[in-house]
Amino acid sequence: MKKPLTLLAALFLSATVAAAGPKPRSGNILSHTSVTCGAKKSEKQDIDLMCQQYVVRSGTTDYTIRQPKPSEQAIIPINTAIEFKLDKNKMKFKVDGKSFEFIVVSQAAASSPAAAPASSAPDHQ
């Protein structure tokens, strides 16, 4: 009698853990650029297709994310706070009720503002 109960409990716990999925993380949009992500051939010329690319900072990590394919999409403002989930090489989040899914192009350690050289320091000769 104990063996079926143990098996049932183990099955229930593993299903609960599997259903949890990735935990949401908070971040901020730091920058935005448009990058070439393909070309469209027309009769007279090739037209470059553009995708939106963003840098998202979360804690000590900067993620560079890009649209998976060119599409008409609203620009997400810089300094927008987001809560996202990472799933393999994709980042999913919502801004103003719209869902977005981007491809994670790279991730790097966040550069600290204190490490950047001071541009307003006088130049001594």
In brief, what are we looking at here?
By secondary structure, the chain is α+β, with helices and mostly antiparallel strands.
Describe this structure in words.
The chain is of the alpha+beta class. It is 15% helix and 49% strand. It is built from one helix and six strands. The chain has one helix at 2-20; strands spanning 25-41, 46-58, 61-66, 81-87, 90-95, 98-109. Strands 1-2-3-6-5-4 form a six-stranded antiparallel β-barrel. Strand 2 and strand 3 form a beta hairpin. The chain is elongated, with a radius of gyration of 22 Å. Residues 114-125 have low confidence and may be disordered.
Poorly predicted ranges: 114-125
Tell me the Rg in angstroms. Answer: 22 Å
Helix coverage percent: 10-25%
- Biggest sheet overview: 6 strands, antiparallel, barrel
> Helix tally?
1
**Oligomer designation:** single chain
Strand order of the largest sheet: 1-2-3-6-5-4
What are the salient characteristics of this protein?
125 residues, alpha+beta, disordered C terminus
